[in-house]
Amino acid sequence: MTEEILLVGNPNAGKTTFFNSLVRANEHVGNWHGVTVEEKKKEFSLGGKKYMLVDTPGIYSLTPLSFEEEVSTKLILGSNSKIINICDLNNLQRNLYLTLCLIEAGKEICVVLNEIDRRTKFKVSQKKLEEILGVKVIEVNAEKNITEIKKLQFFNKKTPKYLKKVDFSCISHYFSENNNKTLCLIKAFERDRNFLLGEGFKESEIDEIFKNLPSSSMETLAKARYQFLDEVISECCQSADFVYGKSKFDKILLNKFLAFPCFFLILGAIFYLTFFSLGAFMSSALSSLLGLITEPISQFLISKLGDGFWCSLFNDALFGGLNTVLSFLPQVVLLFFFLSLLEDSGYLSRVAFIFEDILGKVGLSGKSVYTLLMGFGCSTTAIMTARNMDNKNSKIKTALVCPYMSCSAKIPIYAVVGGAFFGASNIFVILGLYLLGVIVAITVSKIFDMTFLKSDNTTFILEFPPYRHMSLRRTMKVLLANSKQFLVKIGSVMIAMNVIVFLLSSFSFSFRYCANGEGSILQSLGKFLAPCFAPLGFDNWAVVSALLAGLIAKEVVVSSIAMFNGIDAGSTQLIKESILLPTSVVYFASYASVLSFLVFSLLYVPCLASISTLLDEVGKKWTLIGVIVELFTAYVVSFIVFNIAFAIEIYGWAFVLILLAFVFILLSLIFIYRFIKRKKCPFNCKNCQKKCLKK
């Protein structure tokens, strides 16, 4: 049987990088905890022997405070596996705190000091550190050189001497030597109820133990550990004269006046390069290349099969879906490239910091930033990271609002439909859609927090890594992995759905072939639902049918539009031109209807993969509530956007601005009135405030 080794360490210590280097994997690496939300396993060979390496979520101690820490703690304490303890050389004292916890638990460990940056805070004497800790210590650079791993050895040290300074006599009589007495005493001092329950103690017995504990038991234990760590650092380490993670760039990027403008400027530059100058050029070049390949094949099929059902199936459904996937691949790759660049640089951790106050006011944890930012890539994988929320209600809210973030699957919709009507100005439309998604997510979260998903106040701990140069090797791995996922997973769904939509648009409910789509199943469904969308400015049955197809995958919306208009799905320019023609099946009559359609595409129900993930993470009840709220929100916001845009088209900007100013003044007066009325309550009124407000 293959021996199992656990990879354990603090968040951001380089565990996953070490895991990738050792087992030649390509797991996601991030500058925040929560990236690894469940253990990942893979075999590797060392010294002619095979081992199973398990990458666990980052933890600070063996007292879990969140889901991700609970995953690791259960795995560590519930097995006899050997442990590779990764410690960041630049945060050695804090990282060694976990090492002491592992030694106290009697685990066989090997300490690996990870030199993340060339400019390190500490110069460590490995031999002295080995002597003091009683374990093997090796030093590696997890990203570049792990040859030292050949010296891997595991030791189990006896009870550390510093624990003798802690007086356990007040509760020692509750524990026998047979049930791991030392660890039970430590866990009792840390008031870890779940651990004691797992050791067979009853709730009443645990309450009795806790009553006999000194009020400062946790502080006493932590103080003993840190005093010992101070001695270790002073004896084994030579400190450098700089503050790890501090940078002069933070004076600008974290400035209270410049932080948000800098963020939006960076985001705008990324969108411009992705969707326009560079991205548009690459997509156009690839589309032309694909045309040179598919055109001869298409002509060959027409000559052999004729211009009928089978020819349309291959040319429109199969080749059209494939062309759509490949033509948008450059833009998807560019988006992931820039996100990877921001992540590697350490800037995304700063983004989390500047948004923490805003999210805290709407009932979300600061950790929610990670999930919401990942939502710009893929909602399905982003929802999974909501597991690391400390508070259950925060987890549910984060997962439910994540689909409002504009994922990469919606890029083709913005690029084609928006590009057809707004041209070069489409960059501002796309940026506005991304910001609208964030605003709606924050608003919905606030409504949840005020009603039935109230969250307790939580502590937000965040580490600032130093600004780093991107690793070309890791970036290429990320791009290849994301490209593969887009082509294999999303691409296969798009092509399959393209075929399904083609069949639904080619046959009636009586299975009669409809050459031009008249009377088809899809047309019947679209016409049945189309009147519901008339208030939003698009009651075209084909547009509604494309949105229905988008429930499977959002990318299918564009290929469906192309199919209805009889255009090759890979010819984005022809699709843009077709939706401007009144004779086309899919046609938008005004800018207002286009904006409404784009907003609805942004906010309505996510793809089935995301819904499936929501079911796993938050259950059937909250998934159903989330879907209903998303449909309602998409409808209401699209209705508002359409009517404002339509009013601007009819009456001009001046009239609409005056009207909006009037509404703003009216709401302000109502707020002032309520504020003055509340002030009538006595100062520090505790019991009568609600009664006064009711009056």
What does this 3D model show about the protein?
Helix 12 packs antiparallel against helix 19 (472-504) and helix 19 (472-504) packs across helix 22. This protein has helices at 15-23, 67-77, 92-104, 126-133, 181-189, 193-198, 203-211, 217-236, 250-253, 259-275, 277-305, 309-345, 347-361, 368-374, 379-384, 392-401, 411-422, 426-450, 472-504, 521-529, 541-549, 556-564, 572-578, 591-603, 608-651, 653-679, 689-694; strands at residues 3-9, 40-46, 49-55, 82-88, 109-114, 122-124, 136-140, 237-239. The strands form 2 sheets. Strands 2-3-1-4-5-7 form a 6-stranded mixed beta sheet, sandwiched between helices. The chain has a two-stranded antiparallel sheet with strand order 6-8. The model is unreliable at 28-37 and 688-695 (pLDDT under 50). The longest helix is centred in the last third of the chain and has 44 residues, at 608-651. The protein starts with a strand and ends with a helix. A hairpin with a 2-residue loop joins strand 2 (40-46) and strand 3 (49-55). It folds into 3 domains: 3-151, Rossmann fold (3-Layer(aba) Sandwich), CATH 3.40.50; 259-458 and 469-651, no CATH class; 655-694, no CATH class. It is of the alpha/beta class and 695 residues long. It contains 27 helices and 8 strands.
List the helices and strands and how they pair.
Elements: E1 3-9, H1 15-23, E2 40-46, E3 49-55, H2 67-77, E4 82-88, H3 92-104, E5 109-114, E6 122-124, H4 126-133, E7 136-140, H5 181-189, H6 193-198, H7 203-211, H8 217-236, E8 237-239, H9 250-253, H10 259-275, H11 277-305, H12 309-345, H13 347-361, H14 368-374, H15 379-384, H16 392-401, H17 411-422, H18 426-450, H19 472-504, H20 521-529, H21 541-549, H22 556-564, H23 572-578, H24 591-603, H25 608-651, H26 653-679, H27 689-694
Parallel strand pairs: 1-3, 1-4, 4-5, 5-7
Antiparallel strand pairs: 2-3, 6-8
